[in-house]
Amino acid sequence: MSVAAIVVAAGSGERLGAGTAKALVLLNGRPLFEWAAVAMSRHPRVDSVVVVTPRSARETIQRVLGPEVTVVAGGHTRQQSVLLGLAAADPEAEFVLVHDAARPLVPAGVISAVLDGLLAGASGVVPVLPVTDTIKRVDERGTVTATVDRSDLRAVQTPQGFRRSILDTAHAEAQELGSAGTTDDAGLLEAMGLDIMTVPGSELSFKITTPHDLLVAEALAASSDILR
Ligand code: C5P
Questions:
Q1: Fewer Cβ within 10 Å of end Cβ, the chain: N or C?
Q2: CA 184–ligand 1 middle distance (angstroms)
Q3: pLDDT digits (tens, 9 = 90+) for 20-66
């Protein structure tokens, strides 16, 4: 199986309030994009890595990651950034992993589980966790209108894995329709009526969005073996 990983790191990260692109924010002294890229590149079943970055940081990031990693500038939306990453990914790769740089502590076991799902024949595979909070719907005034049954809800993480030809088609169709898009890649396959397989995610793989998330990640990064 030949596998290309695309790490999307072109978001602005405004909610983190760091005054710089989120991908450049330091975790245990190393930038988030480096954690995510190394988590992918050191996995024995990942053959090549593309990192999609803010235009202004492309050269700096290429210097840090070295020539083994392809670094390209991203777009205005996550979907556009993935499309640009796909265009730069090894055309020979049969499978593609799309991973958020904002999830720097992804364990190797989650990457393996996603790849196992693809090997078993799935078109798309996503790592998930059960939802533990009670979820309520509210109206525009913030008044509760419903309590949602959480038993069949899952929080979805990355990397999401796909047969490459199918992801290419899904992105091309979304472009053609000019659809506003989804917040993940599996959503594009769902819109085509394809089944998506779920595999267990990890609490370590949480997305860094707020300053609080970064504090938690600092504590966990100290015992991670991704970057030493
Ligand atoms: O905005 P959100 O937190 O959903 O972003 C998830 C991931 O997508 C992040 O790693 C971010 O860097 C990436 N992204 C991107 N290009 C954009 C927007 C987000 O690569 N235009």
A1: C
A2: 10
A3: 889 999 999 999 999 999 999 999 999 999 999 999 999 999 999 99
Cα dihedral 6, 10, 15, 19 sign: positive
The atom of ligand 1 lying closest to the CA of 8 is: 20
Please report the domains of the chain, with CATH numbers, ordered by start residue: 3-221 (3.90.550.10)
Query: Residues with Cβ < 8 Å from 184, sequence gap 6 or more?
Result: 126, 156, 158, 160
